């Protein structure tokens, strides 16, 4: 299935970092993960994005793309 990710919020507060992630970095990570993703279901979609981005997802808004 194809999912069009329209909005995503990552948990940028998670983790122990000496240098906190900047707003610009947060924006770029979020922007890079919007768009069409291929996954088996919603759980797989969340796992795919988490693995690709390296960040846990707080919330996600998407549409299922029909062929």
Number of domains: 1
CA distance, first residue to last residue: 9 Å
Provide mean pLDDT, rounded: 93
Main sheet specs: 3 strands, antiparallel
Give the number of DSSP strands: 3
Count of helical stretches = 2
Percentage of residues in DSSP E strands? 25-35%
Low-confidence stretches: none
Order of helices and strands: EHEHE
Strand order of the largest sheet: 2-1-3
What form results from the Cα inertia axes? Answer: elongated
Q: Tell me the Rg in angstroms.
A: 13 Å
- DSSP helix fraction: 25-40%
Structural class: alpha+beta
Written description of the protein model:
- The mean pLDDT is 93.
- The chain has one domain.
- It is built from two helices and three strands; from the N terminus they run E-H-E-H-E.
- It is α+β, with helices and mostly antiparallel strands and 67 residues long.
- A three-stranded antiparallel beta sheet has the order 2-1-3, with helices on both faces.
- It is elongated, with a radius of gyration of 13 Å.
- Helices cover 33% and strands 33% of the residues.
- The protein has helices at 23-32, 42-53; strands at 2-10, 35-38, 57-65.
